[in-house]
Amino acid sequence: MISEKQIIHISKFLSLVLRHQPETIGIQLDQNGWTDVDDLIEKANNYGIKFDRETLIHIVATNAKKRFAFNDTFDKIRASQGHSIEIELGYTNHKPPEILFHGTAEKFVKSILDTGLEKRNRQHVHLSSDLETAIKVGQRHGKPFVFEVFAKQMYNDNFQFYISDNSVWLTDNVPTKYLKQNDK
């Protein structure tokens, strides 16, 4: 069986090629971000990242953040969100809960208070429906800091919200007037 360390290595590699740089191994993503599973496995193995279909299924099924998804016939795979390349994930506008959360590092708070939350090189701003997830996201970049986002108010003001396959809330930007510094 494959080790946990190898699973993490392969998962990070999949994030790279399915979200940001498919050209690294010469795969093509269609307009919705899907690529052929057999082609992905073959080209990853040729690149030196060794795994098989069984390992790929295991990674998709056990990834705590549900970063990847198969189509209904399991012959195509894509990243659920977080792309820095232009694709259309086919999400429809959804009414969000009243409050969503955005986790970041304390070092980014001043910039966010100046400009709001911006998607920058990604397709969307990522928001979570629970505080715990936002804290975990913020910890990846330093001491965590969480903003509350007045999502329902934004929605009522004609901002669009989407929810990814792995339950991450997505929007194009969050102006500062919809942000509150979380005291928790």
Automatic annotation (TrEMBL):
Q: Which HAMAP family has this protein been placed in?
A: KptA (MF_00299)
Task: Cite the EC number.
Answer: 2.7.1.-
Q: Which domain of life is it from?
A: Bacteria
A Pfam family it matches: PTS_2-RNA
Q: Which family does it belong to?
A: Belongs to the KptA/TPT1 family.
Its name, as the record gives it, is Probable RNA 2'-phosphotransferase
The GO terms describing molecular function are: transferase activity
The protein's UniProt keywords, in alphabetical order, are:
NAD, Transferase
